[in-house]
Each structure stands twice: as C-alpha cells, then as structure tokens.
Design goal:
Blueprint (H helix, E strand, L loop, with lengths): L17 E8 L4 E8 L1 H12 L4 E8 L2 E10 L4 E8 L7 H17 L11 E4 L5 E4 L2 E4 L9 E7 L2 E8 L5 E6 L28 H5 L3 H12 L9 H17 L16 H9 L5 H15 L5 H18 L1
Length: about 325
C-alpha cells in the first residue's frame, strides 16, 4: 500500500473542514448542534493519503440497503483493500443523500474524522429572537446565523481538548474543555553593569561572599523592576520579589478565555440566503426561488440545498 502522507487518515480534521447544523431545539430554547464532515473533505484526505489514482469507491445494494466501499490500492500486491459501510436516507434527495452518507461512513472506517465521535454534546441556549414555536414545535428563525458563527478547537494527542464558538457578534456562545495554557516568557533585556573601581580596603558584602548566583538574581530583578534591589536584600528575598512580580503580571490578564478566530468574509452562499428576505411579493419570490434552486442544486452540497429550501419555504409562508 502506497501512502503519500500516512497522517492524512488519522490527523484530526481542521475546524475549517467541519460543518455545524442545528439538530434539534427543545421547548426551553436549547439547541443541540451537530458537527459533521462533508464528502468532499473525505475525498481531499484520500487524495492526500494515496493520490488521486490510489483509491476508488464502489456502491452495491445488499438486502435493499445501499453500501459504499472505498478501495485502497496496495502497490506491493497490486490488489485493492476495501472498507465498506451502509448509508441512511436523508430527508431530501433520498438516493443522493444515502450514497453520500455511505461514502462518509466508509471513510470513518479508514480513520478520517473518527474523532468527531468524541466531540462533546453541543447544547446552546438560543436568544429569544433566534427561535420560535410554529404549531407548538420549536424552530429556528432568521436571526439564528449559525453559518456565520466561528468555531475554534484544540487537540491533545489526537483527542479533542477544547471546543468553542463565537456568534456573528463576537459573543462566546459555547465553550467546552480546557484551553491550552499560554506560555509566558519573561524577556530579559541586556543589562549594562557599570564597572566600579577596585578600591583597596572595600570588602565584598556577606551576600556576595556566600552566594555566587546573587549577581544573576540582581540582573533579573533589574530587568523586571527597572532598578537595583536594596543592597541589604538577601538573594532569597530578591528571588521572592521576582516571583511575586511575575504572578502579579499574570493575574492582571483578563479572566475570560480569549481565543483568536479567523474573520469570515460574506460567501456567495450567504448572499443567496440573505437575498431571500428581500422579497415581499410571493409570486415574484416563488419564480426567483425555483429558478435559483435549479442553478444551485448543481454546485451546492446537499445540506446547503436543504437549508436554502427550508428558508425559502419559511419565507413564502410568511408572505402568503
């Protein structure tokens, strides 16, 4: 088996390779959010691991269920090694959704995205304007901009150790695990020590005679405080003052966990979704939605198409 990159199968998915969607909303306004991978992510990882010609997929029906097999070429024997799994139907585009699900499950068997099973349960309290009840059933509203949320993750030895999300307004909406501790380095500026004349009769202090490391401690003290310690301070007290100063500097940091997140630009997809709300004539909107869907269904993934349909149906109901 020829591996171009042996880590491509087991390396945790980057947060940019993962999508998030609302799985359910309970009567209290708490949303359960599902983290999932796209089939194109699997294909990219397979290309990275084996090259575009080093793998293939095949579908077959067993007991009326659709299975997908991912074959890996073993160049030593010139044989194909297969991993199979079954797919489940999606709410829309039944056959396409089942085929995609079977492929993604087979790639789980190869190790791609397997860490998703270890992700924490993501429960988020929605704002009052982000959900409503239609016919007694909780549903998300236009104000829930989950696609605009930015997610951040950290891993420790391949295991997820921290997961957080900020909404489109920069507010932390979900946080789980422990953020890796920041390493604080104390920068010590070069210290220019003025040479004193060696005057006969002036003796070294007791501290200098007993502690050869005192000069280094004084230099570190000077770097932190910008001045020399009192001449009668013991080396122990100098080091204690240094430690207290460092702890004081650290305690002044904001207690809220901060994590840097990449800024998102408005995507072509979001532009289409935002345009839905601009229509106030049901007939005009219906014509635009049908025409646009016929175009987007060729280029968008299944989940995005489903989202577009759902938002169109919801907006149309509000117009009529």
């Amino acid at each position: 088996m020829n591996m171009k990159n042996e880590n491509a199968l087991t390396r945790p998915l980057e947060i940019s390779e993962i999508d998030f969607r609302i799985q359910s909303i309970n009567n209290g306004g708490y949303a359960t959010i599902l983290a999932y991978k796209d089939a194109r992510t699997d294909m990219s990882r397979l290309d990275e691991a084996f090259g575009p010609y080093g793998w293939q997929k095949h579908y077959t029906v067993i007991n009326e269920s659709l299975f997908c097999g991912v074959g890996i070429l073993d160049e030593r024997t010139n044989n194909w090694v297969w991993k199979w799994d079954v797919g489940t139907e999606s709410m829309t585009e039944k056959e396409k959704g089942q085929a995609s699900d079977a492929f993604k499950r087979a790639c789980f068997n190869l190790g791609i995205g397997r860490e998703l099973y270890e992700y924490p349960i993501i429960n988020v309290k929605l704002n009052d304007d982000e959900w409503s009840k239609e016919g007694g059933k909780p549903k998300q509203t236009w104000n829930l901009k989950l696609k605009d949320w930015t997610w951040y993750s950290e891993f420790n030895d391949g295991k997820i150790s921290f997961l957080a999300a900020k909404d489109q307004n920069g507010k932390v909406r979900f946080q789980w695990g422990k953020l890796a501790e920041k390493k604080v380095e104390v920068k010590q500026e070069p210290v220019v020590v003025k040479e004193e004349p060696n005057i006969k009769g002036i003796l070294k202090t007791k501290h200098e005679e007993e502690d050869p490391d005192r000069e280094a401690a004084i230099a570190e003290y000077r770097a932190l405080f910008g001045k020399n310690p009192h001449g009668r301070m013991s080396t122990e007290n100098i080091m204690k003052s240094i430690s207290e100063k460092i702890e004081e500097d650290l305690s002044e940091e904001d207690d809220e966990i901060e994590f840097e997140l990449p800024k998102k630009e408005t995507s072509e997809k979001q532009e289409y979704l935002d345009k839905i709300k601009q229509f106030d004539d049901p007939e005009e909107f219906s014509n635009w939605a049908r025409e646009t869907l016929s175009i987007l269904i060729e280029s968008w993934d299944e989940d995005s198409v489903d989202e577009f349909k759902a938002l169109c149906n919801s907006h149309y109901k509000s117009l009529v």
